[in-house]
Amino acid sequence: MRHGQAAVQDSYNQLVAESRLIRHFETGHVPGLLQTADHAGRVLTEMVELHNLDIAGLRSYHQ
To answer: Whole-model pTM above 0.90?
Structure first.
């Protein structure tokens, strides 16, 4: 993640650009003000695993 999310965003933007119809339904998103630290940490962990992101050397902010 230290290199940013540009590659992930570029691939998403390409997918959107090639789409003829986009629908979105979110059952797992919790608005930021309602998130617990554990929930936010799990969401970030899933993104790291899904996109095979290199997070070696990053500091942990979980307390």
So the answer is: no
